[in-house]
Amino acid sequence: MISHNLIYDNISVLNGAGIFATYSSTVTIINNTVVNNECTSTSTEAKGGGICVGTGNSSFSGQNNIIYYNSSYNDPEIYGTVQLTYSCVSTGLAGTGNISNSPEFLDLIGGDLNLHETSPCIDAGDPNSPLDPDGTTADMGALFYDHGLGVNSDNPLIQPSTMRLSAYPNPFNPVAVIRYQLPVMSYVSLIVYDISGRLVTELANGWQDTGEHEAIFDGSDLASGIYIYRLSSGDQAISGKTVLMK
């Protein structure tokens, strides 16, 4: 049994960069997030970037998983026979409760695989599974969304201590929301560049209060690719990456 794991950014040459179930194996996966794993070979034999299930009476089942953004020459998410329910798989998968919608991670490129508050994976797990620690229906994936902490961070009683920056969904198409947090009132500049360093757009320029803010990055007229967003506040600057996938 493989349960409550983040399995991401792994590389294999041919098969099963995320999980490779060997021949005649019995595997159960529950509440795992399997993303951004890649089989690098250009051979037609490469398959199952996320999960590869061997033949020979292998049994592979489970529920409440997210299997997304994996890649290989063939069958990028899953190769082989699986019996998954209440899971999010980008290529679609037959089975009770399965969905193919974007899981809406907070920041895939930055490695933050927590779910955004609008994620379709929240409360979408098997209703017969144990409840999440916050007492709500099980979420899909390894990291549950805590409804108890999902409060509006613009609340003046909650003051941030550090500057933070993220974009969601990530990847996006065609609109991303860039969220940033300011520890003090300051003059802010939020600029987006393409991967070559060319200025794409300026999303904020002026004085802003302490707290959390949002800006909309519309990529409707832009080409697919990686974009860099950079936040400057006083003498501090941080940046992040987001991917436009059309």
UniProtKB/TrEMBL annotation:
Gene3D superfamilies documented for this protein: 2.60.40.4070, Single-stranded right-handed beta-helix, Pectin lyase-like
Secretion system C-terminal sorting domain boundaries: 168-242
Database matches in Pfam families: Por_Secre_tail
Name under which the protein is recorded: Secretion system C-terminal sorting domain-containing protein
InterPro entries: Pectin_lyas_fold, Pectin_lyase_fold/virulence, Secre_tail
Taxonomic path: Bacteria, Pseudomonadati, Bacteria division LCP-89
